[in-house]
Amino acid sequence: MVLSIRLWVLIIVCSQILVVFAARTDPNDLGVLKAIKSSWRKLPLNWRGSDPCGRKWEGVNCTNSRVTTLKLAGIGLKTKDIGDISSLSMLVYLDLSNNKGIKAVLPQSIQNLQNLTTLMLVGCSFRGRIPDSIGSLKSLVFLALNYNNFTGSIPPSIGNLSNLTWLDLTHNQLTGSIPVSNGTALGLDMLLNAKHFHLGNNQLSGPIQSRLFHANMTLKHFIINNNQLNGTIPSSIGLLPTLQTIRLDSNILTGTVPQNITNLKSVRQLHLSNNFLTGPIPNLAGMNNLTYVDMSNNSFDTSDIPPWFTISSLTTLLMDKTQISGVLPSNVFQFQLERLELSNNNLDGTLDIGNSYSSDLIVNLTYNSIVDFTQKSVYNLSLDLSNNPVCEGGARRRYCPSGNTKTPIGSPPIGLTPTGSPPIGLTPGSLPISVPPNNCPSVRCGSNKMLSIKCKCTNPYTGNIYFLSYTFSNLDNQTYYATLLETFITAFRVLQLPVESISFSSASINEFKYITYRLHIFPSDEDFFNRSSVSLIGNIINGQLDKPYYGPMIFLGDNYCCFPEDKSSNKWIIICATIGSFLIVLLALAMIYAIYQKRHATKEKQDSPFASWGLNNGSDAGAFPQLKGARWYSFEELKQCTNNFSEENIIGSGGYGKVYKGILNNGQLIAIKRARQGSLHGAQEFKTEIELLSRIHHKNVVALVGFCYEEGEQMLVYEYISNGTLKENLSGKTGIRLNWMWRLRVALDSAKGLTYLHELANPPIIHRDIKSNNILLDHHLNAKVADFGLSKLLGEEGKGYVSTQVKGTLGYMDPEYYTTQQLTEKSDVYSFGVVLLELLTARSPIRKGKYIVKEVSEVFDKSGDPNGLYNILDPCLGSPETLGGLTKFVNLAMSCVKASGAQRPNMGEVVREIESIIDLAALSMDSESSFAFSSQNTRKGDLYDPYSDTVTDVSSLSVPFETELRR
Prior knowledge:
By secondary structure, the chain is α/β, with parallel strands linked by helices. It has 17 helices and 50 strands.
């Protein structure tokens, strides 16, 4: 009886607790969060109960019972649909960044979030088009959709976001032009309050319209690098006195730099490199805030040393291949200067560096005509004068390094504690230079743990930071790191985040000329972070703190390894929930769950792509593939997306098998290479191609999407490449005519892809089957290297070759490899040389019993003049006299196919030579017509060949894509 009374008292107390917490969340918002909870994976463990606002679900903040904030960054969320979020009508702040498992489409219903001020989706896997309805979010101030897979054009409706200050669409797959208003349509020029346009690393094309800029705008950063924009730089850019950073590098811009660019007195970083700019080198005198200038690789007029080289604020001056001539004055070498690059110019006379420079200065003056070097004292800087007359005759001086030396870029990691004071054991004011510091005892940390700068084994939150612009180039100067670390520490301290210390390491400049750092953030108190802390850390960094020396940045966090179990349960609520539950129901649910888990585990084991590895198709498959990102597809899934492998979907065939076009459920186009029974490819070669392509990520290498290995099938799933093989384009099969400039660009793209394999992949990769059928052209005629079934890793033995059975394609095979069975990187160079000859002649390597290498060699040797090649030159190219750089191109091709590998250039040298040939070809063409896409002759959906008067309707191509080997 006493026990029953106590039980009833307990029940009454529980009911009172539930009443206190009840009804603190709006019913509509509660329904939305419950719907999210039921369909999303990896949500915080404390998303329990019926009152998210009252119980303070992690990542959820409320105002007056309405959900106003969702901050769920970096916690490993997985979902294919975020539509429910659109019903949180009072939502003000949404951050889902750094959740690669979000593979959703941004829905049109996003327009319902009329109160939204901040939308941060950085580093997810969003796909599809950015909806036009995003222009309805009138309150939006901060829009960051960078590092996703968005496609299509930039919605002009964004111009309707009058409060927007931050627009970041970097690193997507956006196409089309930058939208501007025209009286009836909206455009980005209407964003008067916007301070940041970050549109780099997309596939944007067309000219930069002069209407994009006007005096009423407040832009600070205009960053559109690494696109395919053409035409001239509009003079209206000089109307923006607030501009601080201009990045137009790595586009197809032509014409002269507008003279009124000197009006931009606030500009600190100016990047114009890797375009086709002509005319005089712009006069930047008066732009006294300039710190970083890069105009390399353009076709400016020959010019003396510009007087603005002595601007006192310059830390970095990069002017490689800009036709500068004359004697370099000593007053250019100022104390604040950190890097000076003037290689491949026409500098001459005697070099005098004076005595006002910094000892950290790096100077590259290679490939000039400097005849002497005056030393007033023992100089103390990094100076390279190789390939100048001063270094001829076997001169052995510090400034004449032998071989192809490279100045290392990097810095030691450094760190700070949240208190701002140095860790124990360091002198006041100093910074640690390693993680952990040298005074840490010899301690081995467990899995996923690292020693912090306080010598504690913890689980740090890690990731990469990318800075899109910066004011310096000396990556060893710890002043810059200290300033940035202090900024982070201050922000973390204000929010009372449990951060013990922070460190940076692995400083470098990547292929897009972004400074990158590896970031380690160490927890305090416990040895791990909870979800809220990880989410807030990413939110703070991607929220763009004020950073001296640094421009805008992107933080891509790794998946955190070590979230703790949720232990913060309230005792009374647990008791109440237990009393309110029926034990028999719980037992039944537990049994059902156990049965489900057992079946699910069995199914996963059966469905595993490795369950039968090595059992199918012979026994030569070896160990499981070591994959990095490639997805396994079931046979049924690929069967469905190809309409049961129908004949209508066949887009290629060869000795290996057939290639099918497919459409995945998410709308992505793919190309499926299906091996026929008895194919020449064995399981080991199939495995090799999976392993290699899954870890290769370069714009000039075909991307592997996934694979299938079941039911006796071997299938590789690639990205869909729309314009076929180089072989087909040279033969005219695709209906696209490649003129001289396009062929040079194809050569450059494919050479860059090979250079990546040889020099940047770790370990290096030898392709072993380079040929025109294995070079594919995408919608924009960018070339990509394909088919890695015969590839080999060079290994780490230092031998420089791989002894292996001879395989390859007749006509492309290196004769030295054939005779010695020693495969080297120079074997790929030989094959690439044959491809260059194909570009020149549009002939197969072996035609009517004649070998193209011997045929070209005989013709060229007889005349010594490329004009002598007229009889075997592809007639589509026209007269040899009109082909700028033809002589250098033939010489390059013939150097690649020399009998001895030692006499052939490496692929890095080939890339540089093709770049110089492109410069020569550009000079011989009318710049106005060479690169501009004609708006009069081209309609939407057409591909315009800017080097001819023809327009090809891409949608009408009879053979849009035939991928892989044709054996």
